Amino acid sequence: MEYISISQASQKWGISQRRIQVLCAQGRIDGAAKMGYVWAIPRSAVKPTDARVKSGKYVKRHVKHL
Fold first, then answer.
1. What is the pTM (predicted TM-score) of this model?
2. What separation, in Å, do the N-terminal and C-terminal C-alpha atoms of the chain show?
3. Is 31 left (phi over 0), alpha (psi -120 to 50) or beta?
4. What pLDDT digit, counting tens, does each position of 6-21 carry?
């Protein structure tokens, strides 16, 4: 299996290197493995969908205390 670096994945997917590090740490990139201080990402890995809030509105559920 061939691997690419975070900087190569950043150019390929058009997102920052830091964001890719976070995705790897969260286990959202299939097959990504940490080798020492470096993440190895499979060349065939697919860019994960962005699950962050895009509307800018965060839903807070308040519990009414009686």
1. 0.75
2. 59
3. left
4. 999 999 999 999 999 9
